[in-house]
Amino acid sequence: MIPTIPQNPLVRVVYGAYVVLFFVYLALPLTVVAVFAFNDSQFPSLPWEGFTLGWFFGSEPPMIGVVHEGPILRAIGTSVIIGLAVSALSVAVGTTNAFLFNRYQFRGRGLLYVLMLLPLVIPGIVLGISILVFSSTLANAAWEVAEIDIQALRPGLVLVILGQFSFVTTIATLVIAARLQKFDRTLEEAALNLGATHLTAVRTITLPYLAPAMIGAFVVSFLMSFENFNTTLMLVGSDSPLTIAMFDRLKLGSTPLLNAVSLLLMLGSSLLALVMIAFQRKS
Amino acid sequence: MTTPLPDLDCDALTKRFGASTAVDHVSFSVRAGSFFSILGPSGCGKTTIMRMIAGFLEPSSGDIRIKGRSVLDVPPNKRPVNMVFQHLALFPMMNIADNIGYGLRRKGMTKPAIARKVDEALERIGLPGIGARRVDELSGGQKQRVAIARCMVLEPDVLLLDEPLGALDLKLREHMKVELKALQTAFDTTFVYITHDQSEALVMSDTIAVMNAGRFEQMGTARDLYYRPQTAFVAGFVGDANRWQGRVARAEGEALEIKTDTGLMLRAASPGRKLTVGDRAEVFVRPEAIRLAEDAAELAHFDTRISGHVATILFNGAASRVIVTDPSGADIGVTLPQSGEFAHLTRGAPIHVGWSGDQGNAFVMTRP
Amino acid sequence: MRAGQKLGLILLLTPLLLWLSLLIIIPHIDLFLLSLRERVGVRQYETGLANYRTILTEPLYMVTFARTAMMSVLATILTLLIAFPVSYYIAKLVRGRARSVLFLMCLVPFWVSELVRTFGWMILLRESGVISGLLQWTGLAAGPVEMLYNDAAMMVGLVYTSMLFMVVPLVTTLDSLDDAVIEAGYDLGGSGPSILREIVIPHAMPGIVSGSIVVFMLSLGNYLTPTMLGGKDSLWFTQMIYSQFIVRFNWELGAAFGFMLLILSSLIVWAVLRLTGQTLEKTMG
Q1: Domain limits of chain C?
Q2: Which of A44, A201, B208, C164 could be joined to A196 by an S-S link, Cβ 3.0–4.6 Å?
């Protein structure tokens, strides 16, 4: 079962075949999505009608490509804005959380740590409705007390950002805390010894050390936000992010336009992930 | 009368990894009930030998016989040898009793029988009643003993030990050396022990093989290796030695006179080896074979005498040394006698050293 | 504690407490309060368990609830069974570059949205899809075969979607198992199955538990896959929450549904942790 143990060759072959099959299973759906983005047909299905780039660049109905499809482009923009906001917030709070749990011993620390992990085990849709319910409670209260209508508390961009932030922060905290855990605190002590103040020591020694984890957490948060469906579904207003916009289209019936968008998504996120990996290799 | 079969017999054992040869035609046999050590620097191939005996590596050629039967076709879980791993590899997911009972369960022994054997084994290693503890609750030395007990309950023909003391601190290591030897005697089992630490090998072993670059340099008792090294590598690796390089100026049988590259004239011996005038040679002299004197006349009876001055004194209790700088500027390490007569020695003081020529061990240098 | 340190503690605690209280704890309390509210007339409410009573007495709700739970358990078990050999292969049988490449290949599909992955399965499985076409082309099927919109298709999608969350913790824990421990098992007479049972699986337990919890949660809370791949009668509990909130606008009942889902998931997570002797901190943190 490990290379140093002699193994029946038949078992070895069967095992290898299983692993190959597994990767075929993993690759299959994404491959067909990618391939049918180039099908010169109104439907992303067989038969193969020939190769076209129309679903990317076409400007004439019935084949309007991604680059000329206003609603999709707007949805991508919305997703990017949400993603950036969620990542920035999550990394900021994740960093302070990591420092809190790494550096301080206080009463209730264990309980807070468990609470911090909770968003991982709450179904996304429940997270979504609870925030929806609470924000509308607040909005109704504001209306009843002062007759002001707080738009930010109604389904829309702000709630989507808060909803995604509520669970992405846990991931960001874990990623950053894992690296902070490995930090050799004597480095900070050395900085203090050489005349730095506490804050300067953290800023000049600890934060640069944490930077790869913070960037990693940012990218992961961005991808999670970009992909999120369940929580977003319950909190979305009039301007839908990409996943919701695609879902609405898919319900009406699919055209290879969706394949083209998907392919671009795959390329985009792979690129992002590769950049992140390359960056982490370097540091 | 026939000699009893050796417990372990390796015959022209060879292992190649691609182009490099890790173990090169190594042959040896280990007498039943003896403590056999393979001593060598890291990367010399000793771990490769051990893993071939245990069955985790297949030899490129050669044979391994246990009690006279070849085990090359026997998978590791069926071989009558057990191994104490370098980092012990106790099973962290089991308690101590389950660790020791693991092999017995594999043999399908009944639960009460296993419990009895485990208790016996714990008794034997002097740790009765710790069966319910977890692995990480034990100290380094206790883990060590449990790892041995885990193998010994299976009554293997040969127990392999892969530098098991390496992870321990110095004090405990000293203690465990004595204890391992005692355990080996108590269990009366053949131990094959590999290490890069010469003192472990010297203290515990009945027979030691010194290994270098995939070959055995010399096999013998600790005394043989220390006093009668057969190769320059053994002379340098086992025990401390001063070392000079030079050329044979005069040879009378096994007694030589060598002119070192630094210009000294040394007497040396080469028992069992033939050196002729003009050969490049290397001479080894142990620090404890060299006598110190403040008056050159005291050394008159030695055939090799050098005058110099004290460079530094390294105090280390009974193992204290004086470093003497000879006229050419090279250093000679000399054991400081603990009789107190050199207690006033200071740095820079003139001093004389001498030894008799048969304490110098000369070898032909393979690379001039 | 010195004054400076105390200030630091307060400054670091503030964002954590704001986040947890405003976005996690209070909203869930509010959700619970809402689920206890019973509409008796226009803008008239009473506090009571009426919404829960409705759920317990309406067979469709209970059946859907039980079905969602069972299917999620099944999806978790299938994911574990499929992922374990692959994770073991990556962690223990390949080395160096091949290993990072295989691991990366496991991660790649999850960099794209679940929607895209589900869309891929739709293209493969539907009547006019690739597999149907392939079967007709090879002559194994006479006409188009519909493989979409049933429980099996949904299961394929659920397992696919969760795979990463099983593979990563498994590879991580299996990787931390020293090869020497496995060798020691063989050396002491163990065979493949006994080593798997006594050494490998107990060692991988934290990974198995955390992977299973995450996969179970993801399946239970999944909306997209059952909606897109499941059939008309494979109702999923999240769909009922969605329809109460967005379609029927009966938030009170929807909140009760949401709370039931939360209780179910918490119960199962708690039970699994108890059964395996793990803690949330150890498996998640």
Answers
A1: 59-284
A2: A201
Q: Report, at the CATH architecture level, how domain B8-233 is classified.
A: 3-Layer(aba) Sandwich (3.40)
Please state, in angstroms and rounded to a whole number, the distance separating the CA atoms of residues C19 and C11.
13
Give C197's Cβ-side CA count (13 Å radius). Answer: 8
b/e per residue B255-288 (b: at least 16 CB within 10 A): bbbbbbeeebebbbbbeeeebeeebbbbbbbbbe
Ramachandran region, residue C215 (left: φ > 0; alpha: ψ -120 to 50; beta: rest): alpha
B83 touches chain A (CB under 8 A): no
Residue with tokens 């098992």: C185
Distance from CA of C245 to the nearest CA of A (A): 8
Give the ipTM of the model, two decimals please.
0.86
Cβ within 8 Å of residue C120, ≥6 positions away: A28, A29, A30, A31, A32, A33
What is the C-alpha separation between A78 and C115, in angstroms, rounded? 17
Helix (H, G, I), strand (E, B) or coil at C278: coil
Domain covering C59-284 in this structure, CATH number? 1.10.3720.10
Note the pLDDT tens digit of each residue in A132-176. Answer: 999 999 998 988 888 888 888 888 899 999 999 999 999 999 999
Q: Taking the model in full, what pTM does it have?
A: 0.84
Using the beta-carbon criterion (under 8 Å), do B56 and C181 form an inter-chain contact?
no
Q: What is the CATH number of domain B240-290+303-364?
A: 2.40.50
Nearest alpha-carbon partner for C78 in C268, C220, C212: C212
Q: CB contact, 8 Å: A139 with chain C?
A: no
At A195, list the tokens. 């005349």
The correct CATH number of A70-252 out of 1.10.3720.10, 2.70.98.90, 3.30.565.10, 1.10.540.10 is 1.10.3720.10
Neighbours of B104 (CB within 10 A): 23
